[in-house]
Specification:
Layout: H1 7-13, E1 18-22, H2 29-33, H3 40-54, E2 60-64, H4 76-85, E3 92-95, H5 100-106, E4 107-112, H6 117-123, E5 128-130, H7 147-150, H8 159-172, E6 174-176, E7 219-220, E8 227-228, E9 235-237
Parallel strand pairs: 1-2, 1-4, 2-3, 4-5
Antiparallel strand pairs: 6-9, 7-8
Length: 242
């Protein structure tokens, strides 16, 4: 298993030969309630076993730890043990930190349970294999072949379908904001700019958030880092509307 080598050097050296696996938080409700996996460890083992048995020689498997899980879990030892067990130790990389867009742009494919990184992968036109239940697990949008086949036939991303789906999410079920950043004045008590017509969190004296329209360049795209229409990354799902 490769250790904490400089991420940029790894990514450049593995151009289009790497498969990327973004790990989710160990207690993520999306994993516990919307997948068949009892733990992240079970997911890791299934992926490594499939990669060892079916991925072409010369391809590399890159795991990345979730940034919110760093104080609680370190999967490095377990990944190293499994990589050795399945005899792919030289072909498995575990990263605690890495530039996500760079990994996605250079990857041949992304394997996830149901992380929103899957949407970011589609944004960068990198094929995705979903192993859990995800809102974006749609025929034509993500790979529908089984995992063993995905290593050799990841397919391609239908960019038009992705853009249409993204517009749908932005205009119907998402609000721009981030629960992990400081609340700014004018965004209400939660720091989230809820679209007009949905449940708002504005307080007295705060300026109501403006309506988000498809195609409006309202923020820097957190996926690409460039000025772009509102990105799904860093958004909060509206589970209910009043």
């Amino acid at each position: 298993m490769r250790g904490q080598a400089p991420c940029a050097a790894i990514i450049q050296a593995l151009e289009k030969t790497l498969f990327f696996v973004p790990l989710q938080v160990h207690c993520d409700a999306q994993v516990l309630h919307y997948s068949r996996f009892e733990s992240i460890k079970a997911f890791i083992e299934e992926v490594i076993a499939s990669f060892a048995g079916h991925a072409p020689a010369g391809t590399i498997l890159v795991f990345k730890q979730h940034p919110m899980d760093r104080p609680y879990c370190d999967h490095g030892a377990e990944i190293a043990k499994l990589a050795a067990q399945y005899r792919v130790k030289a072909r498995v990389v575990y990263l605690r930190e890495a530039d996500l867009p760079s990994l996605l742009r250079h990857a041949q494919g992304t394997v996830t349970i149901n992380s929103t990184v899957g949407l970011s992968s589609l944004h960068h036109k990198t094929p995705v294999k979903v192993l859990g239940k995800a809102v974006y697990d749609i025929p034509g949008l993500v790979a529908k072949v089984d995992l063993d086949q995905f290593w050799t036939e990841p397919g391609t991303v239908d960019s038009q379908l992705y853009k249409a789906f993204r517009r749908y999410l932005v205009t119907t079920v998402l609000a721009n904001g981030n629960f992990y950043r400081r609340v700014h004045k004018g965004l209400g008590l939660t720091g989230v700019a809820w679209p007009l017509g949905t449940v708002t969190a504005t307080c007295r004296g705060a300026t109501p958030p403006r309506t988000v329209r498809p195609g409006s360049a309202v923020a820097a795209d957190s996926v690409s880092g460039e000025a772009a229409p509102l990105s799904t990354a860093g958004m909060t799902t509206l589970s209910q509307q009043a």
